[in-house]
Amino acid sequence: MLEFTDVETSRLRLRRFKDTDLAAFLEYRNDPEVARYQSWEGISEAEAWAFLREQRDLQPGVPGVGMQIAIEHKESGELLGDCYFKLEAEEPRQAELGYSLARAYQGYGFASEAVTAWLSYAFRTFDLHRVIAITDCENSASVTLLERLGMRREGHFIQNIWFKGKWGDEYLYAILREEWERLHG
Ligand SMILES: CC(C)(COP(=O)(O)OP(=O)(O)OC[C@H]1O[C@@H](n2cnc3c(N)ncnc32)[C@H](O)[C@@H]1OP(=O)(O)O)[C@@H](O)C(=O)NCCC(=O)NCCS
Questions:
Q1: The predicted structure's pLDDT at residue 146
Q2: 8-184, CATH topology level
Q3: Which of 71, 151, 159, 181 is a Cys-bridge partner for 173, taking CB atoms 3.0 to 4.6 Å apart?
Q4: Which tens digits make up the pLDDT trace of 31-60?
Q5: Candidates 10, 25, 96, 101: which one to mutate for ligand 1, based on the most atoms within 8 Å of Cβ?
Q6: C-alpha span between 68 and 58 (Å, rounded)
Q7: What's the 142 CA to ligand 1 centre distance in angstroms?
């Protein structure tokens, strides 16, 4: 099994979650603005500990098992947020991506920097063919990020999800390996 290796960018370190992330993780996971378009509403301290324990034992690249990768600011050591990454159980050359940043760290290009680095690493390391991301159509920051990454809107689902008390619409974005390499080297 592949051991987790940190991925570094000029400002960031993508690494495994650790116990000292608890406070920062609890804070952004319980921020209603961060949760607004996510499947979750918030998290208790016990649930956050369980999450950290679970993450400690995961390795990336196990088909069907989603992993959350911590995004750390190298200079300050602060936890800024995380990337979600899962290889499809049935077809592990396809993967799904997700991301969250604490509110204070949005608007600095950190998500773009983290996701670009992670996808470049993941396309190579897991021999991926295609990566997808699904976003609420109203989540304009997420739509902008996916388009900035060069992902293509392939689907627009209308009221396909019962989401926080109402039917929601979602976009499906995707990018193929050769497209990623053309755009990001
Ligand atoms: C989706 C999300 C990660 C996007 O974060 P973000 O900070 O807007 O995304 P980026 O990293 O691409 O940053 C882009 C912004 O940083 C600015 N920026 C500042 N310095 C920059 C730099 N060095 N490089 C690039 N952009 C920079 C850009 O101008 C842009 O600002 P704007 O949105 O005002 O135009 C964030 O909104 C979030 O965590 N939301 C809550 C969780 C969520 O909904 N996740 C998605 C579920 S599908």
A1: 98
A2: Aminopeptidase (3.40.630)
A3: 151
A4: 999 999 999 999 999 999 999 999 988 999
A5: 101
A6: 9
A7: 8
